[in-house]
Amino acid sequence: MLLRPDSLTVFQTCNPTTGVFAPCPSRFPVSSSLHSVQLPWRLSPCLYIELAELVGKRLGTPVEYVWWLSFNQRRALRTTMEGCDAYFALPADAQYRVKGLVKSNAFLSVSYAIVAPHDVKVGALSDLKGKKIGVLHGSPPQILLATKEGYTASTFRSQEEVFDALNKKEIDAALLWGPSAGFDNKTLYSNRWQVISITGESLGGQVAVAVSKEKPQLKDQINQALEELKPEIQQLSEKYGFPMQAPLQVNSKNAEARYARLDTLQAKTAAYRSSGFIKVADRPSRREWLVAESGDTIAEAKSNFNNKCSHCHGTNGASPVSERDLRKLSMRYKDDWKNVAYSTITKGRPDLGMPTWGGILPDEEIKAIVEFLVTVQKN
């Protein structure tokens, strides 16, 4: 798209799996890439749209929008940001980098949240033990509960299904993306449930505006506008039903320390820059990984993998998301890929949504899963 010199062009991706709200089609143009796609969300303005408008007013310029349907935010940004001025919004975390872009100061905290009836006392995640908890398939809360004892998770494909189950009392509580759950709770259910933010283990963070590195002056102008608009951002958060209270911490101190140690190890490796399996430590070759030793057959290991791992990595490791496609491990990590896989499974990569399975799955089962992955490698 060609930029008009007198306008601010804002880029936003539409991801059906994250519940991003699309703009009203009567006001904002939708890119042709969306014309043949049946969108599952309601077409209505959202916080980011209204904030972009407010920023545009502060900068004294109208705002134009480019919409792009994408399951990979970084790829979409690399593809389209040359024709756009800013992106509302992406993670403010310094580790979340996109080539050619810089980020504004963080302007909002967002996270997953506990959704429960008002008469249920929720002061910690442990208060949900023994209750039926609704989660979305493949979401970080599903992974979180799978790695903890005492929790019963019921998996759903959409947020609408979760709220329907809550309404019918088929589940006692839910773990959903806080902003979208809060919006539905307010607009569709008249605040029938309490929505309580949680934090930790890849459950949320702050967001910022992305700007091209070639436009440092625009970044400074947006930072100034965001600073001046803090009261309005607070009002917009309330308007759209975002959880407003301080989030509950679901990590233990020991877990936080463990993740910090893992981050230190991972930051030293070149593999840290990739998603999927991440090399977390250098280890000597582990030639003892044999299915015969583990006692599990390939068929059993395949079944275990598909029961426990396919919600993120796809059936038999064939994820449509390249970074999670486990068929490419031998291409990424060469002869050391089995060590990388074993280390990542046992130690996890929480900041990328990969849980720690060591101590939860028997070591023999983990080794058998690695041997199963041998059978699906592409080279």
List the helices and strands and how they pair.
Blueprint: E1 8-14, H1 47-59, E2 63-69, H2 73-80, E3 86-91, E4 101-103, E5 108-117, E6 132-136, H3 140-146, E7 152-156, H4 159-167, E8 173-177, H5 178-187, E9 193-199, E10 204-212, H6 216-228, H7 230-239, E11 248-249, H8 253-267, H9 291-294, H10 298-308, H11 310-313, H12 329-333, H13 337-347, H14 363-374
Parallel strand pairs: 1-2, 1-3, 6-7, 6-8, 9-11
Antiparallel strand pairs: 3-10, 4-10, 5-8, 5-9, 5-10
Compact overview of the structure:
The protein is α/β, with parallel strands linked by helices.
Mass-distribution shape: globular
- Quickly name the level 1 CATH class of the largest domain: Alpha Beta
Main pleated sheet:
11 strands, mixed
Number of strands: 11
Helix share, percent: 25-40%
Q: Radius of gyration in whole Å, from Cα? A: 22 Å
Compute the number of helices.
14
CATH-level-2 architecture of the largest domain: 3-Layer(aba) Sandwich
Order of helices and strands: EHEHEEEEHEHEHEEHHEHHHHHHH
CATH superfamily of the largest domain: Periplasmic binding protein-like II
Question: Unreliable stretches, pLDDT < 50, 5 or more residues?
Answer: 1-7, 13-43, 252-295
> Between the first and last Cα atoms, what is the distance in angstroms?
40 Å
Q: Looking at CATH, which topology of the largest domain would you report?
A: D-Maltodextrin-Binding Protein, domain 2
Query: How many domains would you count in the coordinates?
Result: 3
In percent terms, what proportion of residues is strand? 15-25%
Average of pLDDT: 76
Q: Could you say which structural class the secondary elements and strand pairing correspond to?
A: alpha/beta
